[in-house]
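User: I'll paste a sequence; please echo it back and then give the predicted structure.

Assistant: Echoing your sequence first, then the prediction.
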Amino acid sequence: MIFQEIVEKAIDTTPFITKDTIVFGLLMICLALVFYSSSLKKGFWAGFYKIVPALLMCYLLPSILSSLGIIAPEWTTIAEDGTVTENSSSLYYMASRYLLPAALVLMTLSIDLKAVFNLGPKALIMFLTGTIGIVIGGPIAILIIGSFSPETVGGEGFDAVWRGLSTLAGSWIGGGANQTAMLEVYEFNQAKYGGMVLVDIVVANLWMGILLFGIGKAAKIDQWFGADSRAIEDLKKRVSDYTASVKREATFTDTMVMLGIGFGAVAIAHFGANYLSDLTSNIDGISDNIYLSFLTSQFFWMISIATLIGIILSFTPAKSYEGTGASSIGSIFIYVLVATIGMKMDLTQIVENPLLILVGIVWMAIHAGLLILMAKLIKAPYFFLAVGSQANVGGAASAPIVAAEFHPSLTSVGVLLAVFGYVVGTIGALTCTILMQIVATS
C-alpha cells in the first residue's frame, strides 16, 4: 500500500538525453559557441558581450537545456511495471572532484603569495560582512514574509520552516558539510528537505548570475565605490609580466607534464582527503562536534590539499609552466565546471514554490545590500565584493570561478576565502538559526 502511494506520487522526469557521454558533448558545444561568438569583434555579438559576460552565458546555456527537459542533473524514471528509479548525472561530480582540484593547482602555479597578502584586509572584511549578511538576513526575511504569509515561514515541531532554513544558513556560509550538520542538528523533516535544496539552488545561482553580470561593469562599480584597486592590478601585472617573461610555445611534452602535474596533484589530494577525513571521523568528539564537523568532509580536505600543492609548486621550477599555458588549461577545466553547475539549474523551478523562494531572495538581498554598503564605506573593489560573497554562498566550487573571471592569478584569493568559510560556517549558521527560531516562534 505504501509502495503504491509512493508510485502514485512519483512523476517521471526523464530528460530527452540521459547519457553523460552525449550530455558532456552538448556542454562542450555550448562552451565552444560562447567563446567563438565572444571572440567576434564586429556585429551583434560584439555588442552583446559588452553587456553580458561570456562566463554568464557559459552558465545560462546549460541551464536553458536543463529547463527545456533536454538534459538534467537528476531525474526519476517510472518503468511500465511501476518501478521507480532515481537517476543522476555524474558530470558535476567529475568536474568538481577531478577538474576543479587540477585547475586550482595549475592556476596557482604562478601565484605571488606576497602580493596576495599585500591585497590588505579588505578581502577578509568583505567576506565577514557577507557572513553577517547571511546571519541577519534569515531572521529578517522570516519577519518580512511572515508579515503577509505566516504559513510560508510557519510549521510545528520538526516540520518548522526555520529548521529547514538552518540548512540554507549552513550552505550559504560554509558549504555542503555545514549544511548537512545543520540538517542533523535541527532534525528538519527530510521529506520536506527537497524544498530547501530547491531554494538553495535557485537563489544561490541567481545571485551568482548577478555577480557575473557585474564583472563586465566592474570598472564603473569601482568608480562608484571610490575603490582603490591598485593592489589587485599590481598582482595581475606581476603575474602577467612573469607569464610574458617565461612565455614560449608549448610542446607536446610540456602539455603532458602540465596534465601530469595537475592530475597527479588530484591523486594526492584525493588520497590525502580520504585518509584525513577517515582519521577525523574516527576521533572522538569531532564528527559529533557541530563546530568541527567540516573536518570530516573529503571535499574540504581535497580543496585544501590541492591549493597547498599549487602554492608549494609556485616556489619551484614548475612555476615556469605558466609560460606554456598552465593557467589556460586550468581555465578550461573551470569552464567545464561552470557548465555542469549551470546544468543543475532548472529555470522553471522558480515558479514552483514562489513564496519560499521569495524568502531566499529577500535573504540574499539583505546579504547583497550589506556587502554594497560596506564596499561603499571602506571603498572596496567589486572584486572583493563578488569573491567575498561567493566564498560564503557558493563555497570552494564557485568562488574560484568568479575570482578567475577577473584574472587567473586571483583564483587563489577565492579559494583561501572559501576554505575560511568552512571554519566559520557552522558557528555562523547556528547563530542565524537561533535568531530565526526566536523570530518564528515569537
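Strands lie at 74-78, 84-88. Confidence is low (pLDDT under 50) at residues 1-8.
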